Amino acid sequence: MEKIILCIDMDAFFASVEQQVNPRLRGKPIAVIGSGARTVVTTRSYEARKYGVKTGMNIYEARQLCPHLILVVGDNEKYTHTCIELEKVYRRFTPDVEVYSIDEAFLDITTTHHLFGGPVAIGAEIKKCIREVFGISCTVGIAPTFLLAKLASDLSKPDGLRWIRAMDAPSVLEDIPVKELWGIGSRTAENLASLGIRTCGELGRAPVSLLRNRFGIIGETLKDMGRGLCNRSLVTREEDPKSIGHSITLPRDIMDRKEIESTLLKLCEMVGRRARKYGFMGRTVSLTLRYPDFETFTRQNTLSCPTNDTRSIYDRSLEILNGVRLRDSVRLLGVCLSHLVQDRDQMYLLADVEKQRSLLRAMDAINDKYGEFKIMHASYLKQAEPPGVISPAWRTSGVKNIKVK
After folding, report:
1. Where do the domains of the chain lie, and which CATH numbers do they carry?
2. DSSP strand E in 138-215: where?
3. Mean pLDDT of the chain
4. Distance between CA 272 and CA 267 in Å, rounded?
5. Is the dihedral of CA 147, 152, 157, 162 positive or negative?
6. Each residue of 146-189: pLDDT tens digit?
7. What is the phi/psi pair of residue 40, to 5°?
8. Which end of the chain has the smaller Cβ count within 10 Å, N or C?
9. Is 385 a catalytic residue?
10. Does the pLDDT of residue 347 top 60, yes or no?
């Protein structure tokens, strides 16, 4: 049975939510930004896009292009709540739902579409429901593969609906630039162009040997992509993560050692807490530093035994930091725990170790009930930082479900 996949992509999601909540913003160019001093545009409305405002621009650049641009500080709680409610809408039509990101989802309706009048009827009904309940729009792409469903939604934005059938895929793909395909970045597109391959049609006809020589084993995958083929499966259950990490772009560059260590402790607590919550321990601790000129480097340290203890992660992070001679102030800090294994929650014979684990469980329980960092290590007692911008990779459940404020 040929698969039928829906890609549901919310249109300018953060900006649309803000315009719906505040009617005075409707029809106006707005940019959703973070609350920090170094914020950039995270999402812009379609009215702002007409002026060339792009995601990732700093405020100065955006206002140079659109002087009357309205800046709105993002509210992560609104976006995550809406994402969770949207998933409930999708599940009316199929149990096979993958929330791919905070503003995008894939639905496999292969075995259920006949119950609701067919793929187009489902797509139209989802669009109608989202419009009526949430007051925002989405674009729906329908196809036999995830790659084509994603392309169908990209080609139809905003507020569109398109079905690319298997028989129509060759003609649709023929003149589309390869960079439009999900998974082909600018560097890969440049490498393909050096081989004389610029469109999907050309990629699908390219000799496998040519692609293998340039790209190795993924050469065959690229050829399949040029034909609209992909073997990706729906991810309805989060796979075990390879790593758990947190990073923060600081409100200002810092050089003071105590400030760096304090921020580092917060990051280690966030990493350790997520690892404990989802039952993981890690053998390798990595520290990432970025200077004001954006030079970034990462160092790592491997432990003899896996851990999810905040103090152990912090001690290893400090060891790494002590081995680095800082040439400048620090713009960004990041901590990551990798080489993960399942935490079997075993009893420890050493009383000090068991006492520390009990203390962490108690801290986690209090913060789960009353909110993040309601109880914390004393050395992080400092003025609260502004909430960061939520990652598009946020998920409604699993390790990537990070509490926001």
Report:
1. 1-164 (3.30.70.270), 169-226 (1.10.150.20), 243-380 (3.30.1490.100)
2. 138-143, 161-163
3. 87
4. 9
5. negative
6. 999 999 999 999 999 999 999 999 999 999 999 999 989 889 99
7. -130, 175
8. N
9. no
10. no
Amino acid at 257: R
Q: Which residue(s) pair with 299 in the sheet?
A: 287
User: What strand order describes the sheet that includes 41-44?
Assistant: 41-44, 30-33, 70-73
Q: Are 330 and 366 in contact (CB under 8 A)?
A: no
Packing angle between helix 257-277 and helix 351-370, nearest 10 degrees? 90
**Burial degree of 343 (CB within 10 A; 0-12, 13-18, 19+):** middle
Transcribe 206-230 into DSSP letters: S-HHHHHHHHTTHHHHHHHHHTT--
Q: Residue 137 has what DSSP assignment?
A: -
- For 125, 197, 237, 314, the CA distances from 176, given in Å and listed in that order, are 29, 11, 33, 49
d(CA 394, CA 391): 6
Cis peptide before 158 (omega within 30 of 0): yes
Mean pLDDT, rounded, for 14-39: 90
Residues in contact with 326: Cβ distance below 8 Å, sequence separation at least 6, in sequence order: 255, 289
Residue with tokens 């993960």: 340
Q: Is residue 30 classed as helix, strand or coil in its secondary structure?
A: strand
Q: Which of 104, 125, 261, 385 is catalytic?
A: 104
- Among 189, 108, 102, smallest CA distance to 145 is for 108
9 annotated to a ligand binding site: yes
Distance CA 111, CA 4 (A): 9
Q: Containing H/E element for 341?
A: strand 330-342
Reading phi first (left if > 0) and then psi (alpha if -120 to 50, else beta), residue 315 is in alpha
Q: Are 213 and 252 in contact (CB under 8 A)?
A: no
At 33, which helix (H) or strand (E)? Answer: strand 30-33
